[in-house]
Amino acid sequence: MPAAKKTPPAARKLPRFFHRMPPLAQRAYLRSDAIGKFDFDATAQARHAVRALVAALESGDSKATAGGARSVAIEVCRIAAVMPLGVEVRSVRPKNQRGELHGLFYPFNARSRTPAHIILWMRTAERHDVVKPRTFVRTLMHELVHYLDYALLRLGDSFHTMGFFRRESFLVQMLLEPDDADPDAADLGDSDGDPPS
């Protein structure tokens, strides 16, 4: 089974909330922060699925975009040797005082037996424009990293650590063609305004 490659976390202060977390959550946070990329490579099928997703998104076709996002997720899960998860694509992003919601990940709920799934939005809240492809792919990868934190890395939780964002950038750079990839891998935001959720 593919694992993840660990990279030492940079010497920096931990966030204030870290010290209020229970010990189990602290361990998950530190493990997440220490893992900078996954131990698998993109396949031709995965890159093809991303190109098809981008084409569907650019056409504005919500059904094709949803199918494309599911195909990418299935292929990434296949490469990672984990069970695939559901992906739903909705139209206009919800918005509140903090900004627009790009995507959500719901882990498996043992009580309700609800499987893990991702929800993405393909249109901006204000103008209802189709989201830029790079932003949409990055949001999908962001939510997939949350899933892989549970299914592959078995962290028990998924935190927005620096390691988390390095894993997200790893997936984006691995799957997008060189001219489509984010030129600034350290940029955790996107061209539509807010960082993915």
Write a concise keyword list for the protein shown above.
three-stranded mixed β-sheet; disordered C terminus; globular; alpha+beta
| Stretches with pLDDT under 50, minimum 5 residues | 182-195
Largest β sheet strand count, sense and barrel closure: 3 strands, mixed
Output the strand order for the largest sheet: 3-7-6
Order of secondary-structure elements: EHEHHEEEEEHH
Mean pLDDT: 88
Work out the radius of gyration.
16 Å
Number of helices, where a helix is a run of at least 4 consecutive DSSP H or I residues? 5
Strand content: 5-15%
Cα(first) to Cα(last) distance is: 28 Å
Shape: globular
Strand tally: 7
Helix content: 40-55%
Structural class call reads alpha+beta
List the helices and strands and how they pair.
Elements: E1 4-6, H1 23-34, E2 35-38, H2 44-59, H3 62-80, E3 86-92, E4 95-96, E5 99-100, E6 103-106, E7 117-123, H4 133-151, H5 162-175
Parallel strand pairs: 3-7
Antiparallel strand pairs: 1-2, 4-5, 6-7
Helix pairs in contact: 2-3, 3-4, 4-5
Textual characterization of the structure:
- With 197 residues, this protein is α+β, with helices and mostly antiparallel strands.
- The protein has a domain at 39-175.
- It is 41% helix and 15% strand.
- It is built from five helices and seven strands; from the N terminus they run βαβααβββββαα.
- The strands form three sheets. The protein has a three-stranded mixed β-sheet with strand order 3-7-6, with helices on one face. The chain has a two-stranded antiparallel sheet with strand order 1-2. A two-stranded antiparallel ribbon has the order 4-5.
- β4 and β5 (99-100) form a beta hairpin.
- α2 (44-59) packs antiparallel against α3 and α4 (133-151) packs across α5.
- The protein is globular, with a radius of gyration of 16 Å.
